[in-house]
Amino acid sequence: EFGEHKLFRPYRDTRFSRDKSPYKTAIAARIGQGYIQFSADGLFTGAGMYHMMPDQLVRFRAAIDADKSGKGLEKVVATVTKSGLDVHAPEELKTAPKGYPKDHPRIELLRMKGLVAARSWEPAAWLGTAAAKKRVVDALRATRPLLTWLETNVGRSTEAEADR
To answer: 60, 154 in Cβ contact below 8 A?
Structure first.
């Protein structure tokens, strides 16, 4: 339903590290554009664009600035938030990006350097039941409007392809 999956190694590569403790404290996987992590802290799932390349960031901000797509993103954020996910940026500017007014109606979104929707759950007995899968599936489904907006308005980086 969500696309190809990739399980990340549950152990840490210690070949080039001074810290030789052998194990990670979490296990994680990518499922399509989503991410899932399980650890002693609980369960985490989310999706979005964690770190945008410069060309993506230009398109992201232009789409936020444009009335139609910018208001569309505000609606998407409201919808995804209502479903119980936290919509945030892993990194934000402290002020308006260059070329945008500080009083822009969507300045909070313009300051973001990425955009993800995620949810965490603390450890509990339900983690060992089918309820864990249901919560992950429900959360990943709830990210679809955000992923659609990002794909339509931002897309993949062309810079990464040019570096090949």
So the answer is: yes
Question: Other CB atoms closer than 10 Å to residue 25's CB: what's the count?
Answer: 10
pLDDT digit string (tens) for 19-59? 877 677 888 999 999 999 999 899 999 999 999 999 999 99
Furthest CA-CA distance within the chain = 52
Contact between 142 and 65 (Cβ < 8 Å): no
User: pTM to 2 decimals?
Assistant: 0.86
Express each pLDDT in 77-103 by its tens digit: 999 999 999 999 999 999 999 999 999
Please, are residues 108 and 87 in contact by the beta-carbon 8 Å criterion?
no
Cβ–Cβ < 8 Å for 65, 110 = yes
